[in-house]
Design goal:
Alpha/beta knot, seven-stranded parallel beta sheet, 7 helices
Length: 260
Amino acid sequence: MHCFYTEKENISDGRAQIFGADVNHIKNVLRMEKGEEITVCDGEGSFFQCRLLELMPGKITAEVLERRKAETELGVRITLFQGLPKKDKMELIIQKAVELGADEIIPVAMRFCVAKIEDGKKEKKKLERWQAISEAAAKQSGRGKIPKVRPVLSYQEAVKLGSRMEKCLLPYEKAEGMEGFRQALEECKRLPEGSRVGIFIGPEGGFDEKEAAMALESGIQPVSLGKRILRTETAGLCMLSALMLEIEAAGGTKEKEAAT
């Protein structure tokens, strides 16, 4: 069944309204007619089975038949704190982070960041572009939620936010051994549903020693990703992949236990 996304406020009183490019796609590409059924997602974790009622210029109205919670979201909400990378690497990072289940992405200005966004207008345009990439990736991967790309934070602001999460990890080349990472994964998959997990990824130049020390003092755990030094666009995806696999596997185990 075809799935289309709309804002949460466009679904109320048993009706769902669709605007924008999807209107043309439904009417002129798919050539759907009144009475046919579609799936509508509110972008915040819910899917709605709907029946088309009105196909008007610029707007489509559908009757909500059934609501269900998205099964494509991780039980734990992961925030990626990404040190600003050079050129268009951020676009790739956002796309893949969304596919792997990140709940939100926060660009962070760090000491060794080569890329800088100091102009307010440029930051606004960047954020609009990054959010559009997040939306496209969410739709492509069947997400029930469109992750937000937040405005750029200073490192101090990011650490303060990360320290308030249930678990926060920082891949660091000076962290010793993989056991700490394994234990951290075990702790993350046992967290209650809705808990927040943060991942700090440094830019191309890595973390300054003072930045690493600040994170450690704030309760953020440094972990090793192995003997190789990963690029900034690789490290976060490595972390997200490991977390996604562990959390989804744990979710399957919990479902089996509940069934018995």
